[in-house]
Amino acid sequence: MSLQMLLDERAIQQVYIRYCEIVDGKTFDDLHEVFAADATGDYTQALGPGVISPDRASLIASMHANLGPNSNCGATHHNVGNFRIAVDGDSARAKVHYYAVHLGQGDFPGALYSMWGQYDDVLVRTSDGWRVKARVYTCALSQGPVVTSART
């Protein structure tokens, strides 16, 4: 393994860590630091049939709606680990486990919703660094009421 591959793997790990910081800080407009403008997100397995984000703008809008101040989701804490990264030049594949806990507000005051799953991503090297180009999001386990939703 070359030094460049190790540096790329480290940089890609930092993309996931930054994602957690942005989501937990609820600074969703900063997701341009994580996702390419034309990034797609397939959330069908975790959220239901047809839940696809066709680009970064729709992903950011979804975050505002489902995790923002007018949602049922208050404070969150996201963790990532078990990084499996394969770099091939200016592209990479990554499978990364996550654990996330969400505190309910609005319709679910005080409720806890926990999720364990995986990000299965394709990343590309850009002039601004590594960015997620395509994500398949899966949830292996969850516990508690789903508070990651817009208020009714």
Which short descriptors sum up this protein?
152 residues; alpha+beta; 3 helices; 6 strands; 26% helix; 46% strand
Protein model, in words:
The chain is of the alpha+beta class and 152 residues long. Helix content is 26%, strand content 46%. The protein is built from three helices and six strands. The chain has helices at 3-25, 44-47, 56-67; strands spanning 35-42, 52-53, 73-88, 91-104, 112-126, 129-143. The chain has a six-stranded mixed β-sheet. Strand 4 (91-104) and strand 5 (112-126) form a beta hairpin. The longest helix has 23 residues, at 3-25. The radius of gyration is 15 Å and the shape is globular. 27% of the residues are buried. The mean pLDDT is 95.
> Biggest sheet, in brief?
6 strands, mixed
Instruction: Please tell me how large the radius of gyration is.
Output: 15 Å
Number of helices: 3
Largest sheet: spatial strand order: 2-1-6-5-4-3
Overall helicity:
25-40%
* Estimated share of beta-strand residues: over 45%
Shape: globular
The secondary structure category is: alpha+beta
Low-confidence stretches: none
Beta strands, count: 6
- What is the N-to-C order of secondary-structure elements (H for helix, E for strand)? HEHEHEEEE
N-to-C CA distance: 52 Å
Q: Mean of residue pLDDT?
A: 95
Task: Compose a concise summary of this entry.
The chain is α+β, with helices and mostly antiparallel strands and 152 residues long.
